[in-house]
Structures are given as C-alpha cells and as structure tokens.
C-alpha cells in the first residue's frame, strides 16, 4: 500500500513517519523545498518528542521520502493549515490547492482523507472539486458507490505528546458515505490503538471544532472568574480548587489568555458558520483575548509602583514546559511591557535560545532565573513552567509579584496594584 501525506507540518510529518514505521511506502509532499530536503536527509524541521529518531529510521529504511510533487498512491492524507483570515473567515485555500494536486493523480479504488481542522462542508467541497476536475471518476454520494472513498478524520494530538496520542487517542472518522468511512477506518486501524468510530463527514468536521471550542469556553469561564476574584480580593486558584471538590464541577485554570494554533482559532470557524447563534462561543473568544489586555494593564499598574526597578517576565511559551512561542499570550504581554518599559524588562524563558522577533528594538533582554531573582524587584509570571514553581518562598519574599498562573500560591501578600487597591479599600 502506497500512502501520500500532503503537508509535512506538526501533524503531517509525525503521521507520515508512523505509517511508514508500520511498513507502508510513504511519500510526504510539501510545498517547501527546505522541508523536503530536510526530511529526505533524515532530519526534522519541527521540534517534537522522539520525532527525530523516528524520521531518521524510516527514511534510512526507505519507507519514507519527501517530494514537492504528488504521486499516484492508494491513500492520500491531507494535513495542510487552515488559518483564519483577518475578518475571522476560515481560509481553506490550502486544502483546495492540495485537493487539486491530488485530483490529477486519482484512480479508481483510491482513498482520500482530510485531517486539517476545517469548517463544516469542506470535505463535501473537496468532493465537488474532484468531480469537477475528474469527470471520468464517479464520486461518492452522487450516484452509486463511487470510484474513490473520501473521508474527514481530525487529529486530536497535544503538542509534546503527538507520537503517543496519534496511536492511543480515539479517532472519529466521517465518511462522505458510510462506505467511505469504512474504508478510512480499515486504514487507521493499522496504526491506531484507540477506538475508531465512524460518522458523517459533516459531523466529524463539527466534532473537531466543538472539542476546541469546549476548551476555549471553559478556559474563558476560568479567566472571567480570575478578573472578578481579583477585584473582590479573593484568591481565584483557591476558589477553583475548592469548587472542584464538588463531584460535578471541573473548572480549568486561568492564565494570561489562550495561545497555540488551535484553541484560539477553531471557535471562529463555528462563529463564522452561524454568527447569530454562536454568542457564547464568540464571547468566550473575546473574554480570553480580553484577559491578555487585562494582564498588561494590571502588570503595568504594579510596575508603576516601582519606578526604575527592573521587571522580570517569567515565561514566553504558549503553555507550560514546551518550547513553542507562536501565538503565545505570554509573548504578547511581555512584548507590550517591553515596548512600554524598554530595557527595564528582563525575560526569563528556559526554553528559548533567542528572543522572539516581537522584542526587536525594545532593549529587553533574556536572562536566567537566578539573575532575575538577584536583579529584579517586580515579577510578572506568564507561564507555569515547572522550573518557576520550584523557587522557594524565602528567595522571593521581597518581590512584588503579578502571578497570572498561580505559580507561587504562597507568595506573601502585598498591597494590590493601585487600581485594585482603590476597589479593595
Ligand atoms: N490554557 C489555560 N488554562 C487551562 C488550559 C489551557 O489557560 O486550564 C491555555 C494554555 O496555556 C494555552 C492554551 O490554553 O495557551 C491552549 O493549550 P491546551 O493545552 O489547552 O491546548 P493545545 O493548543 O496545546 O492543543 C489543543 C488540544 N485540544 C483539546 O484539548 C480540546 C489538542 O487535543 C488538539 O489536538 C489541539 O488543540 C489541536 O491541534 O487542535
């Protein structure tokens, strides 16, 4: 069985490598010559636990190679990006471009599976594009059984655990017809240990969007609580911990906003599909984005109470214990503070080799945690890296701290920042 994986990004490359390890002949297709060269030399262009060794092995054994061109195959997996445009409309142009190249090599009996997070109806749109470009082939759901099988099967993996979760997570497989779904199911069964459950393509598209929206709405609840609790001078982490002792309550953790490439994006696909009826989902997005502005304002209030003192921003990653800084609320907050306070701002990020470009020209610099503890008086905690949690309280009793992640719960209480102080008195 020959498999082509279109798009060698965070999902496509690990997927291609896993299928290749299972013994299939896999061709990874990407528009970037750099990515193709890197993979063909047995190396990786993305950071992910254990991926480098896996890719090196399957390339050396000849089971995986990369190419700029799509080749005839038995199975095609499309895993290209689906960003949102400025106006929040989903941009499925990469999916349709990938589908165009696949169409040119399709033959009866082939299976096409879309994995990219997509607005509802994208898999059908892909089917219609195939029908238009290949009138010689019968498409599923149009008349009779169809010559090719088309399905949607979203990925659900967590960065940092991608290879484990690709195998262990349950998969939801949506076919254009039940027969398409059964064909895709037989394919995934070869390398997925989790349950594989079939449904329609439209339902599967919605499932993916709903999963990430569920998380966004729940994080928004925690973020909204954190602002309310701050005004009421209550420790939100204690409130959440105690409320979660209720057997049916499970509140998530507040933070400086929501980052990453999925949770802050996918809810817009639902909102765009039905703006009138998605008020809660839209509001959650606004609450989470607004939390970033709130953190900048509160941190600035605190900093203004310590004129001339150095400020340590702890963490830049989009979440704990990873080295991914894209779409990170921590970067957004720290960069805005750096633009305002310049070289007084020091950044502590054990996972960064260099500062992200957002800090160019601000005068802010990267320092280590020990130096920050010696040199800085004000601490703004933006990421809950384990390394930060382990600072003993006696090393930070004299610091003024704005903690967005509840990393130092035992920090001695000090007067709240000016704006909150007025409320509290
Ligand atoms: N966050 C909080 N509070 C929390 C949990 C998360 O503020 O209690 C923040 C994080 O700090 C981060 C953001 O949310 O900035 C997203 O982090 P995450 O760990 O919730 O999710 P991602 O983006 O790493 O991965 C998500 C996962 N989706 C779900 O958990 C429903 C993953 O399974 C998906 O495969 C992935 O999106 C994706 O590719 O769609």
TrEMBL record:
Species this chain originates from: Sphingobium quisquiliarum P25
Pfam families from the UniProt entry: UDPG_MGDP_dh, UDPG_MGDP_dh_C, UDPG_MGDP_dh_N
Keyword Manganese: no
Full protein name: UDP-N-acetyl-D-mannosamine dehydrogenase
Record keywords: NAD, Oxidoreductase
Family the entry assigns: Belongs to the UDP-glucose/GDP-mannose dehydrogenase family.
One Gene Ontology biological process: polysaccharide biosynthetic process
PANTHER family in the cross-refs: UDP-N-ACETYL-D-MANNOSAMINE DEHYDROGENASE
GO molecular function, one term: NAD binding
Domain UDP-glucose/GDP-mannose dehydrogenase C-terminal: 312-410
Cross-referenced InterPro entries: 6-PGluconate_DH-like_C_sf, NAD(P)-bd_dom_sf, UDP-Glc/GDP-Man, UDP-Glc/GDP-Man_DH_C, UDP-Glc/GDP-Man_DH_C_sf, UDP-Glc/GDP-Man_DH_dimer, UDP-Glc/GDP-Man_DH_N, UDP_ManNAc/GlcNAc_DH
């Amino acid at each position: 069985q020959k498999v082509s994986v279109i798009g060698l990004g965070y999902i496509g490359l690990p997927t291609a490598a896993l299928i290749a390890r299972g013994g299939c002949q896999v061709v990874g297709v990407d528009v970037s010559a750099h990515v193709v060269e890197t993979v063909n030399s047995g190396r990786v262009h993305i950071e992910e636990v254990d991926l480098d060794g896996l890719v090196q092995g399957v390339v050396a054994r000849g089971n995986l190679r990369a190419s700029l061109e799509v080749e005839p195959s038995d199975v095609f997996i499309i895993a290209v990006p689906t960003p949102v445009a400025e106006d929040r409309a989903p941009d499925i142009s990469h999916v349709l471009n990938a589908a165009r190249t696949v169409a040119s090599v399709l033959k009866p009996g082939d299976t096409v599976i879309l994995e990219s997070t997509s607005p509802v109806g994208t898999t059908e749109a892909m089917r219609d594009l195939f029908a238009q470009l290949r009138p010689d082939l019968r498409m599923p759901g149009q008349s009779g059984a169809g010559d090719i099988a088309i399905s949607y099967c979203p990925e659900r993996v967590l960065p940092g655990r991608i290879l484990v979760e690709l195998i262990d997570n349950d998969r939801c497989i949506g076919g254009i017809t039940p027969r398409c779904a059964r064909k895709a199911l037989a394919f995934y069964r070869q390398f997925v240990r989790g349950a594989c459950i079939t449904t329609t393509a439209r339902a599967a598209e919605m499932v993916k969007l709903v999963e990430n929206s569920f998380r966004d709405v729940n994080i928004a609840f925690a973020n909204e609580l954190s602002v309310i609790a701050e005004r009421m001078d209550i420790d939100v982490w204690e409130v959440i911990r105690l409320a979660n002792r209720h057997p049916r309550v499970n509140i998530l953790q507040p933070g400086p906003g929501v980052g990453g490439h999925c949770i802050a994006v996918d809810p817009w696909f639902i909102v765009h599909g039905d703006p009138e009826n998605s008020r809660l989902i839209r509001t959650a997005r606004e609450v989470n984005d607004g939390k970033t502005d709130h953190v900048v304002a509160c941190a600035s209030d605190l900093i203004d109470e310590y004129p001339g003192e150095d400020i340590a921003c702890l963490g830049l990653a989009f979440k704990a214990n990873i080295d991914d800084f894209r779409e990170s609320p921590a970067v957004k907050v720290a960069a805005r503070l750096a633009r305002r306070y310049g070289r007084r701002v020091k950044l502590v990020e054990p996972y960064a080799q260099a500062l992200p470009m957002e800090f160019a020209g601000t005068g802010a610099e990267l320092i280590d945690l020990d130096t920050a503890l010696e040199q800085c008086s004000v601490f703004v905690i933006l990421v809950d890296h384990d390394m930060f949690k382990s600072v003993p309280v006696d090393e930070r009793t004299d610091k003024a701290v704005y903690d967005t992640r509840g990393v130092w719960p035992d920090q001695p209480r000090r007067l709240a920042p000016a704006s909150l102080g007025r409320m509290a008195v």
